[in-house]
Sequence to fold (538 residues):
Amino acid sequence: MTIAQSAQRGEVSIRDLSKSFAINGRSINVLKSLNLDVKPGECLVIVGASGSGKTTLLRVLAGLEQADGGRVLIDGAPVRGVGAERAVIFQEPRLLPWLTVLGNVTFGLEVRGIARAEAEERARGYIRLVGLGDFADAYPRQLSGGMAQRVGIARALTVQPEILLLDEPLGALDAMTKITMQEELARIWHEENVTMVVVTHDLEEAVYLADRVLILPKEKGDTTRLIDVDLPRPRDRSEIRFVRHREALLREFGLH
Amino acid sequence: MSLQQIERPFFVGREPHRQKSVAGLVRQASEAAGSFLSRYGVLLGFLTLWQVASSLGWINAAVFPPLGTIVAALWDGLVDGALLDDIAISLQRSGTAFVAAVLVAIPLGLFMGQVRAVERALDPILQVFRQTSALALYPVFILLLGLGEASKVFVIFWATLFPLLLNTIGGVKEVDKKLIEMARVYGASRLTVFRRVVLPGAVPSIFVGLRLSATTALLLLIASEMIGANKGVGFQVMNAQYNFQIPLMFAAILLLAALGLIANFALVALQRRLCRWSEVIG
Ligand SMILES: Nc1ncnc2c1ncn2[C@@H]1O[C@H](COP(=O)(O)OP(=O)(O)OP(=O)(O)O)[C@@H](O)[C@H]1O
Ligand SMILES: [Mg+2]
Fold:
């Protein structure tokens, strides 16, 4: 373990990580000796063709899936299962239908044994942060898809993780809501000073959010690539440099 | 643009009060009448047809007495207390069996639904028991437990157990795995996952089982009171038929139906209280 610790926590180190699955008796290498460091407070976006292992990588980082080889270190300590310094935002909101918005957002804190009154106070702050202040007492079935997803985001933020892992968090939303939510995520990331690892299919979203973009290979011969996005924030989608970055990403996929 | 503007919140609180003008009241009353008719119209029509057909002799009044006669028989039975005794003893039999089934089936079902190995090991024998008619086993129960209350209660218990057990197991198994994973991500222990995710998630399905079981418990009264009984609503149905007291027979049948409706209504009301988060279908 290195002692060269920065003041801020939330560093992810991926060392020689590999993972394969057996499908119909055939072994498929999904991740092959992946090496990567995510700096504290960085926003890393993962893109790649369908089936390239984005979800698998995120689940290994979350501790929901075990790697076959190599390891993941969080602030220098190896990952063994889920941990309190990490929170996951899934593609679906995964709200408990029998709890109100407030109940869902306090869920993570209550599971960790934090007293109800304190949990609720913290939760209300984050419910306001995601713009649902008037809906604390609503049930999930009374929410739209975008609102439900924001509740899921609030729930993850309430436990104040160092690292947020997001698997296509906005994938199910319509274009308009998606854009506002991207702005929202960028703002939350900035305000909460949290490390984010975001999986997405949307290259514009990648350029909008990322400090760096990781492109996972699809075919055997392909390589893993890492692209810097050094654009000022908040980012402007219509700006020429933004558009160039997007086009560069498209070319990486051979689509342009 | 802010998020709140994009997704215009709909009204979560209660509706604004309607104006209470005379015209409004009339409209409300006719709306209520309309919705009542659309729900109960066919039932009322059926009852009317019965009454008319029987009193005008379109159908044999000895087999299908007019409703008035049936209701009169019911009233007499209730007033002189004979039917009340029957109700009491029948409710005691069904109630004991139902409560016993609840006490066995829900804990066992929750356990079986949670622990794969147990479920795998017990499922085959459960399927065999379930497919074996309780009525066919009644003679066996009588041999084992005698002709008294024990065998009567036990045959009802047997028939009541399986719908509840299978629905409880199903409810536990069908709880969304993604919700369980979400809870694990927040560090929930197995017990917490069970208490906060599995159990509440299984409640609607458990209620389906409770309602099926309650209905079964009352249905089985007829069979269980057919042999070795001299009291009970089910006994009264059979007895009145032997004695050709057809109005009394129908009165007892009506009583059974009413008990079933009341049990179902009570369970639906309880479910509504417990599951305010979901739409309960009555
Ligand atoms: N639990 C599993 N069992 C077997 N194979 C799996 C499992 N999970 C993933 N895989 C396989 O691993 C590969 C990568 O899957 P993964 O879900 O990580 O892809 P992805 O990049 O997230 O794709 P998408 O963009 O479609 O979500 C796929 O070939 C998939 O079939
Ligand atoms: Mg995926």
